[in-house]
Amino acid sequence: MKKSIAIDMDQVLADFYSKLCVTYNENFGTNFTDEEFLLTTQRDLPREDAKKLFALLNEPGYFRDLKVLDEDAIVVIRELQEHYEIYITTAAMDVPGSFTAKYDWLMEYLPFIKTQNIVFCGNKAVIHTDYLIDDSPRQLKSFKGTGILYSMPYNRSEEGFIRVNNWKEIKQYFIKQLEIV
Fold first, then answer.
1. Minimal CA–CA distance to 88: which of 8, 179, 181, 2?
2. Residue 61 CB burial class (10 angstroms; 0-12, 13-18, ≥19)
3. Helix/strand/coil (H, E, C) string of 111-170?
4. Do the Cβ atoms of 154 and 168 come closer than 8 Å?
5. What Pfam families is this protein classified in (predicted)?
6. Dihedral angle of Cα 14, 84, 165, 107, to the nearest 10 degrees
7. Of the residues 10, 72, 94, 134, which is catalytic?
8. CB 93 within 8 A of CB 2
9. Does 42 have pLDDT greater than 90?
10. How far is residue 94's CA from residue 43's CA, in Å, rounded to a whole number?
11. Cα–Cα distance between 153 and 146 in angstroms, integer?
12. DSSP H or E segment with residue 103
């Protein structure tokens, strides 16, 4: 039986923060670069601004035109699928208006993933795969399998997880796991 890998969507597959940076700058009068924005937190927004940002993210189609984060991701996932059961898991419950756009994005870029293997959830503790690749330490802490932290500037200080910097490293890690077995 194949081992299973759950893969987060935003900031692992899809470049959410680049679009969010543009949205943030346009709506809040800031001039963040993508790199600067990756180091900030939107939790510090005044309540009214946070509500406005949440409403913008919930607009139909907001997530539809995100770029692929790493050009190697699609090829690596296709290759890994030969040896592992692949699931895409996204915390879409955090932004309920994103469901259709995220689904359409996944169908465009990953049409080879079975639709039953796409999971819209909130807390990924409900995911029972062998591995989870995610940029969120919070999600990895509640996950019961092996957590793999996809490096981002905002999670650099996190420890206690296997860390990968790109999709080439992900491929190397999982190919090595096959050799161990």
1. 8
2. exposed
3. CCCCHHHEEECCCHHHCCCCEEEECCHHHHHHCCCEEEEECCHHHCCCCCCEEECCHHHH
4. no
5. NT5C
6. -10
7. 10
8. no
9. no
10. 14
11. 22
12. helix 99-109
Judge contact between 121 and 93, C-beta under 8 A: yes
**Annotated catalytic, 8?**
yes
How is residue 113 written in tokens? 């993933």
The pTM assigned to this predicted structure is 0.93
Q: Which of 8, 34, 49, 65 is catalytic?
A: 8
Mean pLDDT, range 132-148, rounded to an integer: 96
> Cα(94)–Cα(97) distance, rounded to whole angstroms?
9
What percentage of the chain has pLDDT greater than the value 90? 80
CA distance 179 to 74: 22
Burial of residue 146 (number of CB atoms within 10 Å: 0-12, 13-18, 19+):
middle
Tell me, what DSSP letter sits at residue 82?
T
- Is the confidence at residue 132, as pLDDT, over 90? yes
